[in-house]
Amino acid sequence: MAGQSAKKQVASNNKILKEIHRITWVSLGVFAVFNFAVGRPQNYKPFIIFSIPALLSIYTLEKTGRPVVDNSGKIVRIGQDLQQEGLTEYFFDIIYLTVIFNLISIVFNTTKIWWLYLVVPAFACYKLYGLVNAGRQLLGGGGASTSGATENDGQSGSKQPEKSKRQLKMEKRGDKPKVRYR
Question: What is the pLDDT of residue 141?
Answer without folding.
Answer: 65
